């Protein structure tokens, strides 16, 4: 009885009267000022950090006001830190000549860090298809590895993760279908040159998915043909290229034959300014009307695609 009494831990006077706010402060992660030179980029970071006008404006803002939102880093075993979320703020800080940056330092294993990095960046606007493709692939692989560990379970649904469940959960988190997740991941099988064409909107998403099934040497042949014809494959052409590839019949002559086919001329649709003006504010220029129309058409197309995949 005496031994069990010794094991009883009594709440201290300070703990009893400590305010809820003080307890919360103790649990809250502290923000530290870390030298920018000690922070390395996240390996295989799929999101581009372009030194565009927006980044230059961020650098100017940092010169005046500093970095207002702390970045997220994790300590490296050999010293220094690895960036998890905040690559653009780090680069802007370098351009601004700032020596330190506010950081939340958090202990994380690699897979947890991958998921945190992807989740933070997928909230950005104007994500390129290739960025989304590699982000989805990285996150799903991390989720799969977590599911293979006996000490981790899937909190969202109360069971261990499997490859299939990881894809379902990722699709639910992104508000899309598992099929669409898989289609994006297919883009990682494209050559860098073809992926760049997708990012540049020279090749549409659906044909790009079909072309991802071509072997690397077949993609090289296709690139040469694209340069020669100064044209990229339509969906129908991409589907036939994939079919011949799967049959083992795709060579230079077949690629040339498919790519030199005359595409059916699309019947032109002409809309007059008078017809359109009633749908737009009077101050809108023709260019603004055109941009709005294409944006609405893209939204309509995405909605139709999502409905077809359900």
Provide an overview of this structure.
This protein has 310 residues and is α/β, with parallel strands linked by helices. Among the domains are: 27-108, Alpha-Beta Complex (Conserved hypothetical protein from pyrococcus furiosus pfu- 392566-001, ParB domain); 129-259, Orthogonal Bundle (Arc Repressor Mutant, subunit A). Helix content is 55%, strand content 7%. A 5-stranded mixed β-sheet has the order 1-5-3-4-2. A hairpin with a 5-residue loop joins strand 3 (71-75) and strand 4 (81-85). Helix 4 (53-65) crosses helix 5, helix 8 packs across helix 9 and helix 13 (235-246) runs antiparallel to helix 14 (252-259). The protein is globular and about 65 Å long. Residues 22-27 and 150-163 have low confidence and may be disordered.
Features:
about 300 residues; alpha/beta; Conserved hypothetical protein from pyrococcus furiosus pfu- 392566-001, ParB domain; Arc Repressor Mutant, subunit A; 5-stranded mixed sheet; globular
State which percent range the strand residues make up.
5-15%
Nearest-angstrom radius of gyration? 26 Å
Summarize the amount of helix as a percent range. 55-70%
Main sheet characteristics: 5 strands, mixed
What is the CA-CA span between the terminal residues? 64 Å
Helix/strand order: HHHEEHEEHEHHHHHHHHHHH
Uncertain spans: 22-27, 150-163
Protein structure class: alpha/beta
- Enumerate the strands of the largest sheet in spatial order, edge to edge or round the barrel: 1-5-3-4-2
